[in-house]
């Protein structure tokens, strides 16, 4: 869901079977547009409210101002197309709710999950069928530099099913179906020369069987992992990076969400 103003929201729905995304008005619940995207859209993420950027601690002054200015006028939705090795970026004008630009970016095989990290001006894409984590630079998209917008962190292995960035620590959590684990990855920095000889992987947290999705709680203290193969949810303390509890649930759980209070 994209919040474009305090009283206006839009819902983006991926339609896997028709290779489209539906845009629904959050007030009227009417479908406004059905947009063609790549082959097999399976996941969508949107830019957070502009207030999120006021707390950005990893961006330069120039990049933060650029993102704040852009977010006041436009919001982007990022669609992972599992079968076409692409992420489709939908740019919406917040004044009228219309999509004004559609951009397809090449990533790697079987992108199945993504996460918008406005704190760093990035979108992380988990590629199930390739040995890297794709990274989309939002400032590069704003500048119109499509060819230079996508980079990657290599050497993370295949079977990646989920990804989430930590808003307070220098970490990205990458979920791997085989083996069942959460990989802790160091984010890329502007000066890559100083970490050229360092592995991007800084930790591994074993979880249950065939994990499919994960999320941080609203306070970013715990990490929750849905284990489809073992029919449970792993609760991870991100400070100790250990699984502290296993919650039994129903058969073959798949997704997870949390309501903040």
Give a verbal description of the structure.
The protein is mainly beta and about 260 residues long. It folds into 2 domains: about 1-155, 7 Propeller (Methylamine Dehydrogenase, Chain H); about 170-260, Beta Barrel (Thrombin, subunit H), CATH 2.40.10. The protein has 2 helices and 20 strands. It has helices spanning about 60-75, 140; strands spanning about 1-5, 10-15, 20-25, 30-35, 40-45, 75-80, 85-95, 100-105, 110-115, 120-125, 130-135, 150-155, 160-165, 170-175, 180-185, 200-205, 210-215, 220-225, 230-235, 240-250. The longest helix has 13 residues, at about 60-75. The protein starts with a strand and ends in a 13-residue tail after the last strand. Residues about 190-195 have low confidence and may be disordered.
Gist of the model:
By secondary structure, the chain is mostly beta strands.
Q: Note the total helix count.
A: 2
List unreliable stretches of 5+ residues: 191-195
Order of helices and strands: EEEEEHEEEEEEHEEEEEEEEE
Q: Beta-sheet strand percentage?
A: over 45%
Give the tally of structural domains. Answer: 2
CATH superfamily of the largest domain: YVTN repeat-like/Quinoprotein amine dehydrogenase
Mean pLDDT metric: 91
**Quick one: overall form?**
globular
- Given helix and strand content, the structural type is mainly beta
Lateral strand order in the biggest sheet: 1-2-3-4
CATH class of the largest domain, anyone? Mainly Beta
- Helical content stands at under 10%
Do you know the CATH architecture of the largest domain? 7 Propeller
> What is the first-to-last residue Cα distance?
18 Å
What Rg, in angstroms, do the CA atoms define? 18 Å
CATH topology grouping of the largest domain: Methylamine Dehydrogenase, Chain H
Compute the number of strand runs.
20
Task: Report on the biggest sheet.
Answer: 4 strands, antiparallel
